Amino acid sequence: MSGVQDSLEIKFRLIDGSDIGPKSFPAAATVSTLKESIISQWPKDKENAPRTVKDVKLISAGKILENNKTVGECRSALCDAAGGITTMHVIVSQPPQEKEKKATNKLKQNKCACVIL
After folding, report:
1. Cα-atom radius of gyration of the chain, to the nearest Å?
2. Does Membrane appear among the keywords (predicted)?
3. Which among 7, 19, 25, 15 has a CA at the least distance from the CA of 87?
């Protein structure tokens, strides 16, 4: 195998269109490793930063990638172009606790405080 097939250049596209990377990953690296890299390189000025690997979903070629799969297993025929950079889309899910807190805060703010005498 040549060096091109042993590693893959990947950039991660965030929801706002900005990118993290590109960075080279070995074919044996797991999707979980990619997610850890995203968390460590997350831009400080961006909101909704993921806290754990479970907060991140990676999408490549229209498929959500599983944490236990390797980069080599997830590679599609489109990624095999020599010298090409693969773009994976990053989706960050908010932890359920934050969603519940926001919903509770909205309910409190919408209460009417009118007093009729």
Report:
1. 20
2. yes
3. 19
